[in-house]
Amino acid sequence: MSQSTTDPDTSGCIERVTEDVVRIPLPLPMPDLKVVNAYAIRGDDGVTLVDPGWANAESESILVGALRQLGYVPGDVRRILVTHAHWDHYTQAVKWRREHAATLFLGREERHTVEAFDGLQGVYPNQVRSLRRAGANDLADEIERLELGPHERDMAVGPPDIWLGGGEEIDCGGRTIVAHATPGHTRGHMVFEDPVDGLLFTGDHVLPRITPSIGFERAPDRLALRSYLNSLHFCMSRSDERMLPAHGAVSDDVGSRVEELLVHHEQRLKEVLGLIAAGAETAYDAARQMLWTRREKTIDELGTVHGMTAVLEVIAHLELLVTQGLLQSDDSGIARRYHAA
Ligand SMILES: [Zn+2]
Questions:
Q1: How many angstroms separate the alpha carbon of residue 341 from the centre of ligand 1?
Q2: What is the SS3 assignment for 167?
Q3: pTM of the shown model
Q4: Ligand 1 centre from 247 Cα, in Å?
Q5: From the CA of 84, how far away is ligand 1's center (Å)?
Q6: Phi, psi angles (nearest 5°) of residue 143
Q7: 44 C-alpha to ligand 1 centroid (Å)
Q8: Per residue of the chain (341 residues), what is the pLDDT tens digit?
């Protein structure tokens, strides 16, 4: 079967990926990311879900309707595999585990972020600190003023039933799904593989159109980019498998997109290194001289939240260059300054 012919972003319109695997696009209550893909895997004991979306009424009724088309009710969901704890993947899983007694699986390293969640601390407490250290004080002030939106309050977050470390073979009703630790986008991100049918459920680790954000979580890992690149190399070892991403269309091979992401980060590392050599001192200095997204926007044109993720990405590149011995950092001032090693 070739590339999907349905619009990948039409929520509710299910797409049969194989005889037993179906993609269910679900709506998201977010300004720019409109759809998350849940996947349903048919087994001989019921159904397994991967990333069943954001807990809200609209998404839930679409998911229930899609299951009904497949001949299931929510009580037939035996297990829920979640690639990472971001709310657009995890919150409905937590709700359904509670209401329908499915077994919930999540990567063990997500516990840092799950446990650190406290709605009273602001929306992005760690990111505010990172932005100040990056020399982006105005942006930090704007982020500090953000409050949780109505769709973000009272989210069910909490631990899963089973923490995955990677390497587990999960029996999904006669079909084995293997969990692979792919840290980077978040610390505990998991990619799930059906080795028999050659399917890779890539979550947010490999996405068709978006460059995944790195370490954008409550309790990030300092070397998130190094972890991310290592995890991309893991996916290259599965380059011929089909890619079933959490956002966007299914494609026939994961390898070509992984290759593009590796090239993107290689170019960014070079660019950032060049900017420091040319006199930029902080992550914010460098981010202001770069162009962002496919539309080549400046950081000021990105707006507050995307401006923040741009600065965080530059921090990730700078920190990797420090560990590679190509840059040195200096913490004697308020902002961290970088210079050639
Ligand atoms: Zn995510």
A1: 34
A2: coil
A3: 0.92
A4: 10
A5: 7
A6: -65, -40
A7: 30
A8: 334 445 677 776 899 999 999 999 999 988 778 999 999 999 999 999 999 999 999 999 999 999 999 999 999 999 999 999 999 999 999 999 999 999 999 999 999 888 876 665 677 888 899 999 999 999 999 999 988 777 776 666 789 999 999 999 999 999 999 999 999 999 999 999 999 999 999 999 999 988 998 877 777 787 899 999 999 999 999 999 999 999 999 999 999 999 999 999 999 999 999 999 999 999 999 999 999 988 899 999 999 989 999 999 999 999 999 999 999 999 999 999 999 99
User: H/E element holding 245?
Assistant: strand 242-245
The b/e string for 307-336 (b: 16+ C-beta within 10 A; e otherwise) is bbebbbbbbbbbbbbbeeebbeeeeeeebb
Q: Label residue 116 left, alpha or beta by phi (over 0 means left) and psi (-120 to 50 means alpha).
A: alpha
Tokens of 320: 């990797």
CA of 91 to the centre of ligand 1 (A): 12
Cβ pair 292, 310 in contact under 8 A: yes
